[in-house]
Design a protein that fits this description.
Length: 459
Amino acid sequence: MEKENIAVGLDIGTTKIVAMIGKKNEYGKLEILGVGKSKSLGVARGVVNNITQTIQSIQQAIHDAEINSGYKIKDVVVGIAGQHIRSIQHTDYISRTNPEEVIGGADIQLLIDQVNKLAMLPGEEIIHVLPQEFKIDGQSEIKEPIGMYGGRLESSFHVVVGQASSIRNVGRCIQSSGIELSGLTLEPLASSDAVLSQEEKEAGVALIDIGGGTTDLAIFKDGIIRHTAVIPFGGNVISDDIKEGCSIIEKQAELLKVKFGSAWPGENKDNEIVSIPGLRGREPKEISLKNLSKIIHARVVEIIEQVFTEIKAYGHEDPRKKLIAGIVLTGGGAQLKHIKQLVEYITGMDTRIGYPNEHLAGDSDEEFSSPLYATAVGLVMNSIENKTQSAVRKEETPKPKPTAYRTPIVESYEDMRVDEEEERIVEDLKKEESTGDKIKRSFFDRYVDKIKDFLDNAE
């Protein structure tokens, strides 16, 4: 019997950590087998700032996903975000030694490797090198150069850059949680896989993913990624403003935002008031919903204007760069009432809310088609593409001695090392790769290998 291709995505967010296990059903749709969710401790604005707390949160999410699904997780594809992410446009070329031979995958790989050697700012590393259009001997707008003749092969690239230490910290947290890191994906790219259709990517679309700590932007045109950006504001700053403006505690501010908040103050009547219980016997507080919406409105306008500045930087007013499909909003922040209307008002562009339900199997739990899970669904889809066997049924694994579930504290770097059995599995997988696959391997895969080497050799 052929082994199931079980995929696992891990979304390490500022507000929550989600571990999602899924597989493709016979109709090619994604069937969710189990989800684990935990409060994200130790992550601020998409960046790990407390290793021990992050490990505990990851372990909780992994543990819950395993219990819900009946599968044991071996490795995960993780999303990378944070304010340290930036993207640049770069053009590079190679002169081929033999123009009489047709261009092959090796030539494109050579060009990508050349871009990977670009000098970056201190402490920065290239995460993603995404070829856009190619030029062969001056002939431009070539999307697929393989099989063509030419001496000079040139391409424009979308290069995503991030802080090396932040990426290594994520890798360290994963391995310390007792699982392997099988791939890294830029979070806006994962979200776009989950909520955008190919038609939208062709027509031109801006995906805005409003998370807790960051707002991610990905712009597509002609089916190619054109621009990415991470803005270091999200839903948490809205809650902070409500907390300060209404003099209430964080929990109450978050509840007020979710249950009664609106991004459009004109929708609330002056006499609409919500009463909040006072602390330790104090008098209840009465808060006007109109004032609440004014606070939310001011902050959402600021976030949208920052994103719109990035869309303008891409040059969407140029007729050739026009985003015909407008804007798609996703992430937890997209659930805020009237945010769609506000975005349309500020940008003048068509807007819709993006739900990751297009790729989900029909019998999936409705909860998972919420914009909240867009990144997690995208990461699972990415894991399926890698064809990794990321989880196995519990009955296939030897049963451990019954012990109470606890979060192990990492004593030393030695404790963080991957055990030899898992290393052997990774080696076997590498050997099984065909030559064609090697050419196709993205820089990300090799980057993951680099991280593994770095982590394994850490003293």
